[in-house]
Amino acid sequence: MINIVWYASISLVLSLMISFAMAAEQVADPSSEQAARERPIEEISVVGERSTLFLLEEIKNAEVLMYDIFNDLNSTDDFDVNCRNVTHTGTLIPEWECDSGFMTRERFQNTQDFLQFGFMPKSDEEMYWENREKVAALNAEMLSLAKENPVLAEAMLELNAKRQRLEEMESRKREKTKGFFSRLLGKDPN
Q1: How confident is the model at residue 1 (pLDDT cuts 50, 70, 90)?
Q2: What is the pLDDT of residue 29?
Q3: Which residues pair with 100 in a beta bridge?
Q4: By CB neighbour count within 10 A (0-12 exposed, 13-18 middle, 19+ buried), where does 146 fall?
Q5: Contact 159, 59 (CB under 8 A)
Q6: Could you tell me where the beta strands, DSSP code E, fall in 58-163?
Q7: Are the beta carbons of 52 and 170 closer than 8 angstroms?
Q8: What letter does residue 186 receive in the DSSP assignment?
Q9: Tens of pLDDT along 147-180?
């Protein structure tokens, strides 16, 4: 029993000594505190490039934002632009498309004409050509509203900047792979 009490008291004394020693180390020398304040703070910078998929998603969001602003400001529902994923016949891969109200109705009418009367369906280029006056009026109204409304102008500039960034990324990727197939086939890329 005496041994247990003796070990307990020794343990207590040792723990107190260790605690006091640690506390003494924590009390800093004023000159070391001064040196610590004057030492520059370390900074770590990580520079990275966003992935193409991330940038494509940002572009989609910027398009939706810009067209929502435009739709609130424009003069007619024919000029309202809606964006959505569209899965065309013959593929299961959806494509992101933004269409004005008049072009959506034109596509619908084109499909109805084909199904009901057997008319040959028009291509997108033909439909845009037939509606070129409305397309020109839509573009003119968008530019006019952008001049009057800085929020719309900012959204348009932001979308354009993201599209340019995407083009630059794709251009760098093409440059990196330039001549890859020639090297693979053993031909001189120059």
Answers
A1: very low
A2: 53
A3: 81
A4: buried
A5: yes
A6: 81-86, 95-100
A7: yes
A8: T
A9: 999 999 999 999 999 999 999 999 988 888 776 7
What is the model's pTM?
0.65
**Which residue, 161, 140, 149, 129, is CA-closest to 55?**
161
Phi, psi angle pair for 100, to nearest 5°? -80, 165
- Torsions phi, psi of 12, nearest 5? -65, -45
With the C-alpha atoms ordered 161, 164, 166, 168, is the resulting torsion angle positive or negative? Answer: negative
Domain residue ranges in the chain: 2-30, 52-177
Greatest alpha-carbon span in the chain: 110
Q: Any long-range contacts for 77-85 (C-beta under 8 Å, 24+ apart)?
A: 77/101, 78/102, 78/134, 79/137, 79/138, 79/141
% the chain with pLDDT above 70 = 73
Q: Measured between alpha carbons, how far is 123 from 129 in angstroms, rounded to an integer? A: 10
Interatomic CA distance for residues 104 and 81, integer angstroms: 9
